[in-house]
């Protein structure tokens, strides 16, 4: 069984082929970072146009590198939401068109379910149930994963997501785009451990997140600083420590609430080295286990979409005769039944 995965939710065109026996056969990715970096963020119209020019060549490359023909593909899985509507439309239209031409199903996939299950592509994969901390540019949430397709949202960001806060803070500091890696790299130059920055909403019960206040606090510190490299490094380190501490405090609460001993960290921010170190330390202290996807599966990619497509195809959780083009710029993870 082989599934072609298409990911075009934002600024990366991801194409992959998943084989039920061999795993990922090819994983092609084109990033638009250079295109958008001059603007300090993603320009939706430019993103859509770039997806349009890259998607077919990448599909052809994926088939060639996998030594497969179109007749070897059993289904096409594509990101239907959430994301930028124009970018999503490119992937959905191509998926539906190819599926019709090849006489196979097109399976819409929730982008966050892809991130949620990306660690399942690893040899050392978590067993169900577990708690997942999803941290990306657009989302920060804690999800209880009882089984495939059975998810309970425990908490989520009420304003800026963690990745968004990294990007915005980096821009305030005059760093490049994307901001997360820039802040992490700069933070390594700091020689102090400043824990004076607020850990938002950690003094309140519940598992929701808020990072806009921390971003504003950091902006005020930047404006008062000398702005030399060491000063900015100390600010970057203090900001990163505050974000990661907040994520860990909430994750520990979620594990205690659910009684689970396994924590999965996924999404673009899961590649952050300081976050991984902090999670490993926390889980060892409570005799738990922590799992992550490899770095190329942390950011947006076609492999995670192909894998979820395989699981849905295997379980027949899709409408076999529906090749309509529908995308969902905003789509709650707990509304997954509407994808079926």
From TrEMBL:
Kindly list the GO molecular function terms attached to this UniProt entry.
iron ion binding; tRNA N(6)-L-threonylcarbamoyladenine synthase activity
Where in the cell? Answer: Cytoplasm
SUPFAM superfamilies per UniProt:
Actin-like ATPase domain
Q: Where is the Gcp-like domain?
A: 24-307
**Which reactions is this enzyme annotated as catalysing?**
L-threonylcarbamoyladenylate + adenosine(37) in tRNA = N(6)-L-threonylcarbamoyladenosine(37) in tRNA + AMP + H(+)
User: What keywords sit in the KW lines?
Assistant: Acyltransferase, Cytoplasm, Iron, Metal-binding, Transferase, tRNA processing
Q: Where does Fe cation bind?
A: 111, 115, 300
User: How is the cofactor bound, in the record's words?
Assistant: Binds 1 Fe(2+) ion per subunit.
Q: Which residues bind substrate?
A: 134-138, 167, 180, 272
PANTHER family of this UniProt entry?
A: TRNA N6-ADENOSINE THREONYLCARBAMOYLTRANSFERASE, TRNA N6-ADENOSINE THREONYLCARBAMOYLTRANSFERASE, MITOCHONDRIAL
User: Could you tell me what this protein does?
Assistant: Required for the formation of a threonylcarbamoyl group on adenosine at position 37 (t(6)A37) in tRNAs that read codons beginning with adenine. Is involved in the transfer of the threonylcarbamoyl moiety of threonylcarbamoyl-AMP (TC-AMP) to the N6 group of A37, together with TsaE and TsaB. TsaD likely plays a direct catalytic role in this reaction.
The name this protein goes by in its record: tRNA N6-adenosine threonylcarbamoyltransferase
Q: What is the lineage of its organism?
A: Bacteria, Pseudomonadati, Pseudomonadota, Gammaproteobacteria, Vibrionales
Which gene is the coding source of this polypeptide chain?
tsaD
